[in-house]
């Protein structure tokens, strides 16, 4: 560790990595530029500490910006150190973690600093889908620097001091920071979909450590089993009561109730995150209609509808899982699409992205229908029609075009209530029941809710060696 930067930048690295595991690279590098007032300033490590170490035995590369050196601003040599870390990480196949606290471009270096930004962007783009990239924002991350978390896979932000923006709040027309602090952790996590975790600094570093143990080191890592100490056949009592809050449901079926939720504050009607099943990391995507707090009081309620934000959130998550060969489990309870003017502007494109993400993914895919699965919203949620390998349905679930009563009203619009009720009953039996879908082969098995854990574990075990090819192409365009 650089003896000139024993401040917050180095302390974060020490807290993040296993004790005494960090090896610094480029600690003697300083700024080359001397224009304006730079020749009068010391720039130890040029404002960024770079190197490698381990987290629970897993190799990672780290850069941590030092706000005490020119406010952590990025210049030519600062960027070259980060680029070098990326080059090494790509060679050996290990994640890169960036700890951001930066004023942005170094004005004294002008075009050299602009080029430096571009070099970092290029390395991030090349690394995308090859090695995991994680960003932690502990101070300012503004302007062009905001692209760095946008190009990474997971972003954490400190709840009080973290600031993320392209345009500062006061630079936005008809706004100033007291009116709407668009740079705050709260705004960025709830409105933009860029933030995965908001927490205090210590909690962020601890959760980063947990995340590293859950995801592969690179896109060729075989994600070997870790020992599972939970009962593989554990019955999950009262699981049907969690059909609304699927965050609780996922935690219940996971090994030792482990659940790492991503983007928890954004599009809360769609849950994404990682669980463990028989020691293997599985990505989870689930519709949600309720949220309960730790004391089991209801804090939020949603319709069982797909929203543009929820679809985009889920699609991005599935794409990450597919890139790194992480199996995906979906829990489906969707009756349609959110019907508002604002939703209508984006829903067609967003649900297309979700459909494409599932259809394009070659990883093991398992779907459990836990509630109502109606219409094309059901089809988009990892149905067999778009490539799901195995679909289970709870015995209490429904699968079909729409609610039976509504269908009967449409088909028998001129009939009285007795006829409509009779036809609704017939329609539910023939076209809307899970058993009817199973008879047609759209559902592979009907299961009791309490048996969900053992069935999905068995399914992923069977699919462990799955191989699936796609038509040769450079890439899709959806």
UniProtKB/TrEMBL annotation:
Q: Does the keyword Transferase apply?
A: yes
Is Transferase found in the keyword set? yes
Residue ranges of the CoA carboxyltransferase C-terminal domain? 200-469
Q: Where does the CoA carboxyltransferase N-terminal domain lie?
A: 1-169
**Can you tell which superkingdom this protein's organism belongs to?**
Bacteria
Q: Which UniProt keywords apply?
A: Transferase
What molecular function terms (GO) are annotated for this protein?
propionyl-CoA carboxylase activity; transferase activity
Q: Name one Pfam family in it.
A: Carboxyl_trans
Q: Per its record, how is this protein called by name?
A: Carboxyl transferase
Q: Recite the lineage of the species.
A: Bacteria, Bacillati, Bacillota, Clostridia, Lachnospirales
